[in-house]
């Protein structure tokens, strides 16, 4: 990376527990090394019913997933680990869009995945392409083999929503609402995000999140989503799933 890139603000990470890197900015962990994979599968993949939906798509179909908070990219890697055979056998065109205010420095990204034991065969390619990205730009884009196009919007999510609404109008099929809890990070969970989700929702758009915050549920419902509480992962009693209401 050149000096210009170094000026970009990367995440500041507390590595005192190497298995659970913690954001010093948000004072919260990115991903739990014990049970994190199960949590991603339960909350985001099953929460959006992805296995069944991807399985039912006609060969060669496109499918767009959007995520709030790219962090270590673990949700993406687990998604690819779970569905790579399906994506390849059906020739699906998967696009993964994510927002990240404080991207991990490539050295931290590498370190995180040394400890996480991700089984995805695209991990080396992911780490290489991430490290070669230009973090001084507003977004970074790379392709992971024949599996997915990845675009990460850098900077505060609020600075991207207006353009995102226009570019991805009626095209997002599923949302992973990550991004720390709304009580600790209310700046991410805004009505503007919820209305962008409505504008960009494809007719089959779903969402999933670990939070059951009343503010979030009311905001999403006001934007046009039907929201349901369902059992959460592990010790988490509840989480939310949602569907865009047909208009
Ligand atoms: C729980 S972590 C995401 C974990 C991630 N999905 C993974 O698989 O590792 C939340 C992420 O949201 C990012 N974030 C928080 N507030 C943000 C904002 N306003 N705009 C964009 N990203 C934000 C944080 O920097 C952090 O990386």
Quaternary structure annotation? single chain
Radius of gyration: 17 Å
Low-confidence stretches: none
Q: Report how far apart the termini are.
A: 47 Å
Proper CATH architecture: 3-Layer(aba) Sandwich
Under CATH, the topology can be stated as: Rossmann fold
User: Any idea what the CATH superfamily is called?
Assistant: Vaccinia Virus protein VP39
Share in helix:
25-40%
Number of domains: 1
How would you write the strand order of the largest sheet?
6-7-5-4-8-9-11-10
Chemical compounds bound to the protein: S-adenosylmethionine
* Highest-level CATH class: Alpha Beta
Overall residue-averaged pLDDT value: 93
Number of helices, where a helix is a run of at least 4 consecutive DSSP H or I residues: 9
Q: Could you describe the largest sheet, including whether it forms a barrel?
A: 8 strands, mixed
The backbone outline, from C-alpha atoms, is globular
Q: What structural class is derived from the secondary structure elements?
A: alpha/beta
Strand content: 25-35%
Number of strands: 11
From N to C, what is the helix and strand string?
HEEEHHEHEHHEEHEHEHEE
């Amino acid at each position: 990376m050149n000096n210009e890139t170094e000026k970009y603000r990367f995440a500041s990470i507390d590595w005192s527990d190497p298995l659970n890197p913690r954001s010093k900015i948000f004072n919260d962990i990115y991903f739990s090394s014990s049970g994190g994979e199960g949590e991603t599968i339960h909350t985001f993949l099953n929460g959006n019913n992805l296995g069944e939906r991807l399985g039912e798509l006609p060969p060669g179909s496109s499918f767009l997933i959007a995520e709030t908070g790219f962090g270590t990219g673990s949700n993406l890697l687990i998604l690819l680990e779970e569905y790579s055979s399906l994506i390849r056998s059906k020739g699906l065109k998967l696009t993964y869009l994510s927002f990240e205010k404080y991207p991990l420095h490539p050295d931290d990204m590498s370190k995180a995945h040394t400890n996480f034991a991700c089984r995805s065969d695209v991990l080396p390619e992911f780490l290489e392409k991430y490290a070669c990205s230009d973090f001084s730009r507003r977004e970074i884009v790379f392709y992971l083999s024949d599996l997915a196009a990845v675009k990460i919007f850098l900077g505060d999510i609020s600075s991207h929503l207006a353009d995102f609404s226009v570019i991805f109008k009626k095209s997002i099929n599923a949302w992973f609402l990550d991004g720390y809890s709304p009580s600790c990070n209310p700046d991410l969970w805004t009505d503007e995000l919820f209305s962008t989700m409505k504008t960009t929702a494809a007719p089959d758009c779903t969402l999933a999140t670990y939070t059951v915050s009343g503010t979030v549920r009311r905001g999403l419902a006001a934007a046009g989503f039907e929201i349901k509480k369902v059992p959460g992962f592990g010790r988490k009693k509840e989480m939310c799933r949602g569907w865009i209401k047909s208009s």
